[in-house]
Design goal:
149 residues; alpha+beta
Length: 149
């Protein structure tokens, strides 16, 4: 009988006042069960949006912030006399530093010094002046999810 009254209340039918209190209690118990028992739709949408923002933060913004922090640490470690590469791919030697830029000598012409913004220097790196490819480091193989080898 309780399931019948719960069904009738879910379909928005009216019940006589004598059985109304018992039916209301049974409908509250029926709707109170489940994962999100007594929550209305608006609350669920808010929870869903907050969960999406948190997931996007950990999957998108946080790795980008870590990468930018690592690049900033590399730029701060550059000293006078270091060989650097710019974001444009040009190699040069740092001859002086200022607050917001490096003074870099590019190429074999030692008289040409160009100020380059700190943000445009990628990091320390020596140019490969030979025709040989650099030796590749062996990376450990990662096991797949379903593969044994």
């Amino acid at each position: 009988m309780n399931s019948l009254t719960a069904f009738l209340l879910d379909v928005s039918t009216t019940v006589s006042s004598g059985a109304g209190e018992a039916a209301a209690q049974s409908s509250q118990q029926a709707s109170g069960g489940g994962l999100f028992g007594g929550m209305n739709g608006f609350t669920l949408v808010i929870i869903y949006c907050v969960a999406l923002v948190i997931i996007m933060y950990f999957l998108s913004f946080r790795p980008t912030q870590k990468r930018e922090k690592a690049l900033a640490e590399q730029r701060n470690a550059i000293q006078i006399g270091d060989m650097v590469v710019t974001n444009a791919g040009m190699y040069g030697k740092v001859v002086d530093t200022t607050y917001d830029c490096f003074i870099i000598e590019f190429g074999l012409n030692k008289g040409v010094r160009v100020p380059v913004a700190r943000g445009e220097v990628y990091g320390k790196r020596e140019p490969n002046m030979t025709n040989e490819a650099p030796p590749e480091e062996e990376k450990p193989k990662k096991k797949g999810l379903f593969r044994k080898g």
